[in-house]
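Researcher: Go.
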Amino acid sequence: MSKIDKNKQIKRDSLLETAFGLFTSKGIHKTSISDIVEAAGVAKGTFYLYFKDKYDIRNKLIAHKSSGIFQRADHALNQTDITGLEDRVIFLIDNIINQLVEDKALLRFISKNLSWGVFKTVLIEAGDDSDVVFYDIYHSAFADAGTFENPEVMVFMMIELVGATCYSSILYGEPVGIGELKPYIFRTIRSIMSMHRTAGREPECGAI
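Model: Structure:
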């Protein structure tokens, strides 16, 4: 990466982090582009070099933060000797949940704004943008698409399930604390994968 590209990346990352701080403290609707550039110490024109508007930076921030979570989980997974697909997915989910437990502000932001459509939109716009590592992990894990009837639908359902159930459990302990809820989440994830598995294929890991 050239010095110019590095400076661009630094400015973009600064805007993303500044926006995240403002969005999580003031709320998206109460945060203006002027607030973001002033706090980041850049000109408004610089903002528009990287983002179309406030909602564009929100979407890219969601992808940026979410991809960081998936990347850390994937890195941790690669340090293990786990080979079965279902066990690998459970490990990733467990690691992601633990990260959200440690960063509740991130949990609030992502759970309110995350959608499968955001990932797809950002991927299309970004091309090979390194932020969007989630799709790399997704395609790597489900490269053999024939194993499942529709892996994209399956992963969408798992993301929605984890996001919806973890929010109240982590923040409010409802209906139970996250430690008690995890086994139910993991069994449900295994059931979803089993139901979407193409007929005739055997599971890659042991019993639930």
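Model: Residues 108 and 167 are 8 Å apart (CA to CA).
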